[in-house]
Design brief:
mainly alpha; 149 residues
């Protein structure tokens, strides 16, 4: 009877290296998919946050005291941030540039007499004139019933 030193399933170094490379590739793809999913969720959360801030700014511009330039600047800032993160949500594998600083209410304006929203209807119209965030073709599911795929 002849005894073979080679078994039927012999592994060579090349086979072992290919197996390790395949496992490393698979683990790398899984790690990338997890990172992209986390970024998607974070960008989605930020986009919704800025959209909500813009809606709240339209409904309640400031604590009953209006500085038109500040309110408009803040509305434009919220709109830019919502659009930025809506785009980032669609392409979470790409890098996103840092956020610019939000507009700050000028300190010298506190000494001016307060202007009430009821007194100047033009301010309310200017705030309502800030365009909607969804005007850029936002693809978030749900909402207005449009086809969002």
């Amino acid at each position: 009877m002849h005894v073979s030193l080679k078994s039927r399933w012999s592994f060579r170094l090349r086979t072992a290296l290919l197996a390790v490379a395949a496992c490393a590739l698979l683990l790398g793809l899984v790690a990338f998919a997890i990172r992209v999913a986390r970024r998607y969720r974070e960008y989605d959360r930020l986009s919704i946050t800025y959209e909500c801030k813009l809606i709240m700014l339209r409904r309640h511009p400031a604590d009953d005291v209006i500085d038109l330039d500040f309110v408009l600047a803040r509305g434009e800032y919220y709109q830019r941030m919502a659009r930025k993160y809506a785009l980032a949500r669609r392409r979470p594998w790409l890098a996103v540039e840092p956020d610019p600083d939000p507009p700050i209410r000028p300190a010298g304006r506190a000494s001016r007499p307060p202007v009430r929203l009821e007194d100047i209807p033009a301010i309310a119209e200017a705030i309502k004139g800030i365009p909607d965030v969804s005007a850029d073709g936002d693809t978030r599911p749900g909402g207005d019933g449009a086809d969002r795929s």
